[in-house]
Amino acid sequence: MRAPLSWIRDFTPAEASVDQLVAALNQLGLEVEAVEEPGRDVRGVVAARVLEVVAHPDADRLTLVDVDYGSGQTRVVCGAHNVNAGDVVPLAPAGAQIPDMRLERRKIRGVESDGMLCSPRELGLGDAHEGILHLDETVAPGTDVREVLGLDDVVFELDLTPNRPDAMCIVGVARELAAHFGWPLDVPTPRAPADPEVTSDITVVIEAPDRCPRYLARVARVAMGASPPWMAQRLVKAGMRPISNVVDVTNYVMLERNQPLHAFDLERLDGRGIIVRRADTGERITTLDGVERELTDDELLICDARRAPQAIAGIMGGGTSEVSDATTEILLEAAYFQPMGIARSSKRLKLRSESSARFERGIDPNGVAEHAERAMELLADVAGARVSPEVVDEYPGPVEPRRIRIRTSKVNGVLGTGLTDGEILEALRPLGIEVEGSGDGITARPPTFRPDLEREIDLVEEVARRIGFSAIGRTVARPEEQVGGLTPSQRDRRTVADVLVGAGLSETVTVPLVSPVDLERAGAPLDRLVEAANPLRAEESVLRTRVLPGLLRAVARNHARGLADVGLFELGRVFLAPRKKELLPDEPYHLAVAIAGTVRRSPVEPDRAVDGHDPVDVLQQLLDGLEIADGRVEPAEYAGFQPGRGAAVVVDGVQVGAVGEVDGGVLTALELVPPVVALELDLDRLLAST
Known about the structure:
Layout: E1 2-4, H1 5-8, H2 18-27, E2 31-36, E3 46-55, E4 63-68, E5 73-78, E6 88-92, E7 97-98, E8 101-102, E9 105-108, E10 111-114, E11 116-117, H3 145-149, E12 155-159, H4 170-181, E13 203-206, E14 214-221, H5 229-237, H6 245-257, E15 261-265, E16 273-278, E17 284-286, E18 292-294, E19 300-304, E20 309-312, E21 316-317, E22 329-336, H7 339-349, H8 354-359, H9 368-382, E23 386-394, E24 404-406, H10 408-415, H11 421-428, E25 434-436, E26 442-445, H12 456-467, H13 488-502, E27 506-507, E28 513-514, H14 516-521, E29 542-543, H15 548-560, E30 566-573, E31 589-596, E32 598-599, E33 608-609, H16 613-625, E34 631-635, E35 641-651, E36 654-662, H17 664-670, E37 676-682, H18 683-687
């Protein structure tokens, strides 16, 4: 995120040096990746009023522009054609400095040019270079362009963690700095002028309230055009390209208040209304980037009153109702969408936007109306908006702030500090957290713009951020009881490993990326494969759904190096792609055993080749070690095992795996000599029976 210092100062004084601000932001967890000074390389560039534009005598595409720069007049040769008499433009005369260039007086096609007129790109204000930048006509000739354009600004490039959506806006950064330095924070309550002659007569219907808890719509009549320079400059500094006054206002409010907005051309909405619904599987929409996208029933759509899709909710608008130069009336959308739904859709569609990045992390559901009011206030200022006083706000289940108990003893116990109740309360209040009580009975109510504050330990971290980690002294922990230790499942897995080592097997760890062919050949499930986006080896392109195929590869490698008699086991996770409407894959623990070659028993008894009884014997030792009484094998046919020589492993009436001789086709593909016997168990299911 890019945060211009001049914008931050709209809400708090920020009266500190750049180094102090950087140190504070880093301490607060808003890591500063870079500090930019847009006007550092701009010197001597001034505002100039165009007096006359005449054709170049020896070049069809060039013009001669006479300008008044306050202390005199001069002539420059210009290649742009958007300059007319009366315009106020940036002049870089001979001797001036712009990024990567120092201007000199020189002849161009036989005519001497005293410097140049500047486009936005030449001043470091973006990529636009087709035309000369126009300044406000009220700017006096000779005024330093750094002052006019705010080029003496400082921009902080912040690397924010995913749990801090509140800091993805200028107000959020200002709030953090104000709390840290003890500065006042002033976020004015917006007041948009309402025009009673503008009626909205719009409707909003939410058919998927679980995915869209709140949807607000407002109507305004606007005059489309370019944004004023001050707004365009701020957007450019914040990393966004100015488009038009209406679109720029929606982006401005998103950057300032962390509220994504969308403006629909109301005349292009069939039925003058909005329906929020789930998409039908196979339904299509062409988004603003010109791409036609096929949807599933997990996507949320913003539709017109005739149910025609107009936008993918929270991600990107559609092309059919976007605003244009011909737009005269808009419907402004301000909404709160369920974060995980936006995250799933954005990931599946491979479509991320500034809006989706904010919605999937969580915005403030209770700030929607105020932020829409801020947009209307700006629209009245920059687009001459006549705002309807009517607001359609569907919010059937208002979100209440959480109530979290925080104990002074817990804060001091975790941080190793001796903070008083008052110090803890004063650390939290400037962040907008309502706190009351004392001792171990303090109750905190975090604001709804802080969805990351869910538990007591989250508030302890906030206290640590506020007092400063450097202020927390070093202490040696002296616990009265044992700290740490293994969980029951970890202890059980260690028992399993101990039993198998005791049975004469060697533990191995194989790479979880395997070949789909190996999985298919071994009878592993293929319906929920997780594919690697950029595998190191093309033949190992999926995550395993069974451990045994990789373990058999390990047996084959040993065999190829002359070690034919091996007994291996592996404990590890398998990976099954997410089911519908789930975000993460299932990752259960599995156990696999593979034994090959000869069982050496001489001189007690003759040596023999391994057979199906050997893995069953290992299984029995495992059941005994885990003290599982109701475990047995039942004849069954399994893909990957020899027909008639495989069995199901059943514990407490639940099938937990399979055991038997490996199928000859699998062995042939791996160049192994039969027999090879194996066992694979769903360890989580097995241990659930202990």
